[in-house]
Amino acid sequence: MTTPDVVGSTDMAGPDVAGSENMAGPDVAGPPDTAGPGPAGPADTAGRGRQPGRFSPESARKDFPILHRTVNGHPLVWLDNAATTQKPRQVIEALAGYYSAANSNIHRGAHTMAREATEMYEGGRAAVADFLGAPSPDSIVFVRGTTEAVNLVAQSWGRANLGPGDDILVPVLEHHSDIVPWQLIAKETRARVVPVPLLADGQIDQDAYADLLSSRTRLVAISQASNVLGTVPPVREMTALAHRYGAKVLVDGAQAVAHLPVDVTDLDADFYAFSGHKLYGPTGIGALYVKPEVLAGLRPWQGGGNMIDSVSFDRTTFAPVPHLMEAGTGHISGVVGLLAALNWFTSFDRAAVAAYEEGLTAYAQQAMAMVPGLEILGSAPGRIAVLTFTIAGRDPAEIASWLDRDGIAIRAGHHCAQPALAHYGLESAARASFALYNTPEEVDQFVASLLSLTQSS
Q: What angle do CA 326, 246, 241 make, to 5 degrees?
């Protein structure tokens, strides 16, 4: 087995064969210096001391204090990245710096700190637009995460544009967050949600998709990458086909943004949503891109402060988009943290990161093949670093609990993707998911623990 190539790393020894008795654990450095930043802390968020563009997992790991802790007496091996990624010190420091030196409400204040906070918040919007390849910051709406983004589209666009007999096409591989909101709005508007089937390898059945599209299709909701199968559908081609029928397309980018380049203009998506906590940022913050001509036609889905121009009991006028869609005080610190995460993440050569993760995933697949009775779900080409699996005779919860004893964190359950699991006749499965800071040595520890499980009574 060959280890994945690492761009910019030096002297990275290849790991022992998974399951060997003499496996050295990864070196565990002491926690990095996490002293609080000065007043300029939130703005100073790039990967300090790192040559721009270079990448190695070892250098990335040094930025994550949590990766240097122990769990149950073992160094932490975090393989639950599809659920949430860990946070680099640059994000942690940005949050601390904001609250210690810049905390203020935004947009409505006339004082210095209000202006500073507003600049940070709107700077975050500009950074998100740049990251997604959006034409303007004004096409970015801040939300709590992907789930809220999908609900926003369902309640705002859906309520105004769906009616009896309309179809909403949703592939079987979707996360519940991209299924349930459409069921709710379909029930209200008397539209219907139409599932798009999968092939045996976990790819979307493109022939079935083409057959299901019709003049009744109003929306296609699709993930750019599956959280349970790792499948990466041909979103650009599927979007182009949907547009031929006049349908809008919402892309769930929650799993994609940390692994794939995103260009919403090239995808021609009408809506694109992601969550910050899947991208090394804080929880409770995410973003929704809306194509400008579509955004201009959206009506408010919530009312309150910030989204208004003037209010009286006779007449209320509204603020322009995107503020029209952001009622109330936003998650200001979350945007500061998201900006820091984007600055940190984009300081690496994205192609190098993608190549490393691809190699690490291939290495993990080869190593996991050594575990008796283990089966990985799906075999679609070009999958992201998500490996969902079963072991014959072992409950997924038992697998996760066993690994946890060795300090290895994975996820077990239905992964909020019950239709996708049902495609394989399953109700639950175990899932290991990788990020740029994971290493071949951690894969070896993971597989060795699985081997010991299969050898236990």
A: 105
- Rounded Cα distance, 245 and 241, in Å: 7
Instruction: Determine the length of the chain.
Output: 457
User: Cβ–Cβ contacts within 10 Å for residue 423, how many?
Assistant: 20
Q: Using alpha carbons, select from 363, 389, 392, 361 the residue that is nearest to residue 377.
A: 389
In the structure encoding, which two tokens stand for residue 207, read together? 């022939």
Q: What is the pLDDT of residues 356-402, one digit of tens each?
A: 999 999 999 999 999 999 999 999 999 999 999 999 999 999 999 99
Each residue's pLDDT tens digit, 300-342: 988 888 888 888 999 988 888 998 888 888 999 999 999 999 9
Contacts of 333 (CB under 8 A, 6+ apart): 95, 98, 99, 103, 282
Q: Which is nearest to 184 in space by CA: 224, 147, 131?
A: 147
> For 50-60, b where at least 16 C-beta lie within 10 A, e where not — what string?
beeeebbbbbb
Tell me the one-letter amino acid at 383. R
How wide is the angle at C-alpha 145 spanned by C-alphas 142 and 149, nearest 5°? 70
- For 148, the 3-state DSSP assignment is helix
Beta-carbon contacts of 82 under 8 Å, excluding residues fewer than 6 positions away, are 227, 255, 278, 386, 411, 415, 431, 433
pTM: predicted TM-score of the whole model, two decimal places: 0.88
Residues with a known catalytic role? 416
CB-based contact 430:390 (threshold 8 Å): yes
Position 451: which residue type?
L
Cα–Cα distance measured from residue 326 to residue 323, given in angstroms and rounded to the nearest whole number? 5
- pLDDT (tens digit, 9 = 90+) per residue, 434-443? 999 999 999 9
d(CA 39, CA 348): 26
Strand partners, 387: 432
Backbone angles phi and psi of 311, in degrees to 5: -130, 130
CB-based contact 366:425 (threshold 8 Å): no
